[in-house]
């Protein structure tokens, strides 16, 4: 029986993929690659890989690495495999439970995750990752600490869009991030599992600031990614709501009009300096 809880109840695969692509992409790859510390020839595993954004990008830039991705959600893995095939990459994806990883002991040089640790008890999160990690191998835990949006210079249609979202009626929504904790507690838990060289880093990733870009293609791609993230979020909310059908056309038209207006202003050289950023937490350790 397929497991589609996360993609159907929490966050659709496309929304997860596009929201990650908005924050992590070719433009800022060096920022998060420096914490992964990848070298060609490594065996790398991502747990909770979602639609495969990170794993596919790693394989593109480090083709000699053996890259694996697992997720408990069948829809996520199906999406990841298709993306991988479309990009002509060789990443090994499989549906698997983090509590029972289908890999041999001490198999990987690097095991990493993004926004996974907060969703399950730490013992469940860490035991199997430690088992499959080589002695001397690294674990990297990535988390979003805070998202900052400054769209005030561009509030076109925001009120009307908010009104439409406010009309949506849901059955009981699923709770997530039940085990979210402060980074120092995560580091203490790694220490209790006898990990070494435990480190903490914070980075602020500015992933949307079209008016500060020298390259117009980069600026336009940011505007487009921002729109796609909003669109995928709206579609997921509409599909999850009891009355989504009645609101769908109005909401999607508003979002499209907002996107077209932002693009028009950019092309007319009207600078708004709107931006979006995330505070990222990187916790690393060695086995």
Can you walk me through this structure?
- The chain has 287 residues and is of the alpha/beta class.
- It has a single domain, classed as Vaccinia Virus protein VP39 (Rossmann fold), CATH 3.40.50.150.
- Helix content is 44%, strand content 23%.
- It has ten helices and seven strands.
- A seven-stranded mixed beta sheet has the order 3-2-1-4-5-7-6.
- α2 packs antiparallel against α9 and α7 runs antiparallel to α10.
- The radius of gyration is 20 Å and the shape is globular.
- It starts with a helix and ends with a strand.
Quick synopsis:
The protein has helices at residues 5-10, 13-23, 29-36, 53-61, 74-86, 122-132, 158-167, 183-192, 216-240, 244-267, and strands spanning 43-47, 66-71, 92-95, 108-114, 133-150, 196-208, 275-286. It is of the alpha/beta class and 287 residues long.
Summary tags:
287 residues; alpha/beta; Rossmann fold; 7-stranded mixed sheet; 23% strand; globular
Chain-wise SSE layout:
Layout: H1 5-10, H2 13-23, H3 29-36, E1 43-47, H4 53-61, E2 66-71, H5 74-86, E3 92-95, E4 108-114, H6 122-132, E5 133-150, H7 158-167, H8 183-192, E6 196-208, H9 216-240, H10 244-267, E7 275-286
Parallel strand pairs: 1-2, 1-4, 2-3, 4-5
Antiparallel strand pairs: 5-7, 6-7
Helix pairs in contact: 2-9, 7-10, 9-10
Q: Identify the CATH architecture.
A: 3-Layer(aba) Sandwich
Give the strand line-up of the largest sheet.
3-2-1-4-5-7-6
What is the CATH class designation?
Alpha Beta
Q: What's the overall geometry?
A: globular
Q: What proportion of the residues form beta strands (DSSP E)?
A: 15-25%
Fill in the CATH topology.
Answer: Rossmann fold
Alpha plus pi helix count: 10
Q: Report the major sheet.
A: 7 strands, mixed
The tally of structural domains comes to: 1
| Total number of beta strands | 7
- Overall pLDDT score: 93
Structural class: alpha/beta
């Amino acid at each position: 029986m397929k497991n589609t809880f996360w993609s159907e109840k929490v966050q659709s695969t496309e929304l997860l993929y596009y929201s990650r692509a908005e924050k992590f992409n070719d433009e800022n790859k060096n920022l998060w690659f420096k914490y992964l510390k990848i070298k060609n020839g490594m065996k790398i595993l991502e747990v909770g890989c979602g639609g495969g954004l990170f794993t596919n990008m790693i394989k593109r830039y480090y083709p000699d690495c053996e890259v694996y991705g697992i997720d408990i959600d069948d829809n996520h893995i199906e999406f990841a495999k298709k993306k991988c095939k479309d990009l002509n990459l060789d990443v090994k994806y499989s549906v698997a439970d983090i509590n029972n990883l289908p890999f041999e002991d001490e198999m990987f040089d690097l095991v990493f995750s993004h926004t996974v640790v907060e969703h399950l008890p730490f013992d469940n999160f860490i035991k199997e990752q430690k088992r499959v990690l080589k002695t001397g191998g690294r674990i990297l835990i990535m988390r979003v600490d805070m998202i900052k949006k400054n769209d005030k210079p561009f509030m076109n249609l925001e009120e009307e869009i908010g009104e439409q979202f406010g009309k949506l009626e849901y059955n009981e929504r699923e709770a997530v991030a039940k085990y979210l904790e402060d980074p120092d507690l995560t580091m203490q838990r790694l220490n209790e599992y006898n990990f070494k060289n435990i480190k903490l880093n914070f980075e602020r990733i500015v992933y949307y600031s079209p008016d500060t870009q020298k390259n117009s293609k980069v600026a336009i791609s940011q505007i487009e990614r921002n729109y796609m993230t909003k669109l995928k979020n709206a579609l997921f909310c509409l599909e999850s709501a009891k009355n989504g059908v009645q609101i769908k056309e109005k909401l999607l038209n508003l979002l499209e009009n907002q996107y077209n207006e932002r693009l028009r202003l950019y092309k007319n050289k009207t600078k708004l300096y709107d931006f979006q950023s995330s505070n990222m937490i990187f916790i690393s350790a060695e086995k």
